[in-house]
Every structure is written in C-alpha cells, then in structure tokens.
Amino acid sequence: MLSLLATSTTFDANDPETTVAIGHLFASLAIALGALVLLYYTSIYVRDVLAADVGGAQWYLSIGLGAAVVYAGASIGDVFLESAGIPLFGDGAILFCILFLTLAIRAMYHAERTREERSQLLPAWADVAVIAIFVVAWWGTFLLESAWTRPVVAVGWVLASAWAIHYGVQTVRVHEGTTLAALTRHLLPAIVCLVAIVVVDLVTSYLSGYAALADATWIVGTTLVGAFLFTTAVAIRQQGGELERLYDWTTWRDQSLE
C-alpha cells in the first residue's frame, strides 16, 4: 500500500488517490473498532457467563485481536507516513493475528464437553514451537528486507488459515449448539478474508497494472473483516442476552406450586 496522503499537503476530494487513501483509513478504523468491541464483550462473557474452562482460548483470542489492532494501526500509519518499515511490520502483525485466532479456535475445539478428553494431534510444546517460528518470521520480515521475505510469510498465512478452517469445522461439529460453535462460525470468515487480502496484495505486487485491484480488494476485504469481528461480538452479546431473559420479570410471571 502506498502512503497516499503523506505526499499531499491539501485535501482534494476529486483526487482519486485521496479517495483511495480515505477508504484505507476508514477500513482500518473498522477493523480496529471491531477487534476492540469483540475483545470487550469476550472478556465480559468469559468472566460473567461462560461456565466452560476456556482460559487458554481467551488468551489466544486476546493476543490475536491485539495483533489485529496493531495491523490496523500500521495501515493507518502507512496512509499518513512514508516509511518502508510500516508495511513490513503490518505483514507481521497480520501473520500473528491469523496465528493466534487459529490457536484460539483450536483451544475451543479441545475444551472438554464431557469427561472424555479428546486426543490432540500435536503435543502442548508444539504450540510454543509454532509461535516461536512465527515470531522469527515476523522479525525476519521486519528486519531482513529482501525479495523472499514476503513469500515466506505468505506461506505462513496460507498454512495458518488452512489450520484454522480445519479446527473451525471440527469445533462446530463437536460443540454444535454452544457459544463456542457460534463464536467459531462468526470468527472463521474474518480469518479467511484476512488471508484473501494479503494473498491478493502479494500477487499484485509482482504484477504491473493491478494496483487498483489491490486497493479495492484491501478496502473491501478489510471492511468485511471489521464487520465479521463486530458480528462475532454481537453473537456473544446475544448469547448472554438469552440467559438474562430467563430472569426477565417483564416476560416471566411469578410461579407458585400452590
């Protein structure tokens, strides 16, 4: 993405580049707002309503949403500032966002519904190893600016999204009818949209004449990600609202056994 407003000293609504820059700005604000709202409602729901032990999933989700906010901040900075490091840092942030949202879905899948514990495909230390690899990839992308860093990170995007889809389907199948299934259904499309955005941006960066396609995909895709994050927060709030209505004195009459 280009720093479109950084080179413009005056605001011109008729300038196509300025229009695209404003679209980038509002799309970035949408994903930041959606992530913050989801983080707020998730913390309240886990603290006050949810009975299942999903502490690990909550931490993963919080870190993933924090990375989404960092990504949105990097995108906003890229609009106003001319710095080659900001887009690279944003690539790493989106890598972390996809990874930790995937780990959150995986942790929800392994949340125990019965006394029978589901077998894990990978041992616990594998999570730490995967996170360490992604940390190295992030800082490698940020510090080692070369032609091969973005394709390597793109491989991580695709693998993490495939991992998320696998565990998303399994989570919905195992926890059908629960909050965990509803959360996964709304969260998984956000991950898919993120991957679609970065893959299109990567492919078009090696082609000439497709800058408009990359900008359009980024604006629409990022807005969709923000919308999916917000609808996930709405779904969580509705789950809590359903429980609150069980004790709603305006809809339930006093009952007596006499």
Automatic annotation (TrEMBL):
The chain crosses the membrane at residues 20-42, 54-74, 86-109, 121-141, 147-166, 187-210, 216-236. It comes from the Archaea. Keywords: Membrane, Transmembrane, Transmembrane helix. The keyword rRNA-binding does not apply. This is Bacteriorhodopsin.
